[in-house]
Design goal:
The protein is mainly beta.
């Protein structure tokens, strides 16, 4: 696999069982730890489409949302070579660099898979399945609830609740909230993927965080996640995760597809 490198220096009720209800459009995390899978990718990178397809295939290969939450974060540092990725955001490039700075040596690359806050290069092998199983075997260190109140042409209206198992984690833990979209496609006109039609799922369209915890190790938030014109409500969802900002460790993650009636 070819890699492109760029050097860079709660009053809410919780339950241990996975749950989502279409009528209420709500969900809550399980008693075990759900793995967060972040793919840093770009339409300007010719080795990224294989990773994009891999991410899209995870649930089709037998994984379920209670085991992992996949997110595709498109970076903008490939835009200069001739193709501007329509899904790229500078804040995703910045997040990738911040995670890299927690390790040595410090570098970022595409496609990069970050599993539970750690660089994971063997994502295309059986080692990924084994790594997810090890994460799932751990008791969750945080609980999360998500509700989608409405999906309008301009935004997803979401409510988030989180609670830490150990109040001592509140000093370094934070919550992140993301709106994602599936079934996106682009006919690339320039750059390394010129002439190709690229398809994407779990693409992060809006990102909020870090949101810090209060002194009682809980938080409740109501947020509007803006959407771009033309977003299809049937292909949207919201994800949330709790992460230690000092170490990068993810304490828990949850995803919730938008209800469409």
């Amino acid at each position: 696999m070819k890699l492109h490198y760029i050097v860079a220096a709660s009053a809410l009720a919780f339950s241990g069982a996975a749950h989502s209800a279409s009528a209420a459009c709500s969900g809550f995390s399980e008693a075990h730890t759900t793995a967060l899978v972040e793919l840093y990718t770009s339409e300007g990178c010719d080795s990224c489409p294989a990773a994009d397809m891999w991410l899209s295939s995870l649930f089709g290969r037998g994984f379920r949302p209670g085991q992992l939450v996949p997110l595709a974060l498109h970076v903008d540092y490939w835009d200069y070579i001739g193709w501007k990725d329509p899904f790229a955001k500078g804040e995703f490039s910045a997040r990738q660099r911040r995670l890299a700075q927690l390790k040595r040596p410090v570098f970022v690359y595409t496609p990069q898979v970050v599993l539970q806050g750690q660089d994971f290069r063997r994502w295309g092998s059986s080692e990924f399945t084994d790594a997810v199983a090890r994460i799932n075997a751990r008791p969750a260190r945080a609980r999360i609830t998500l509700s989608i109140d409405a999906v309008t042409p301009g935004a997803i209206q979401a409510r988030l609740g989180a609670q830490l198992s150990d109040p001592a984690d509140s000093k370094s833990a934070a919550v992140y909230l993301a709106a994602y979209e599936n079934k996106l496609a682009t006919d690339v006109k320039a750059g390394e993927n010129r002439g190709r039609r690229l398809e994407h799922d779990f693409v992060v369209r809006e990102w909020i965080g870090p949101i810090g915890f209060g002194g009682d190790a809980t938080l409740q938030e109501k947020r509007a996640l803006p959407l771009l014109p033309g977003a299809n409500p049937r292909h949207l969802g919201v994800a949330a995760f709790v992460q230690n900002r000092a170490t990068g460790e993810v304490l828990q993650a949850l995803m919730l597809p938008a209800c469409t009636g």
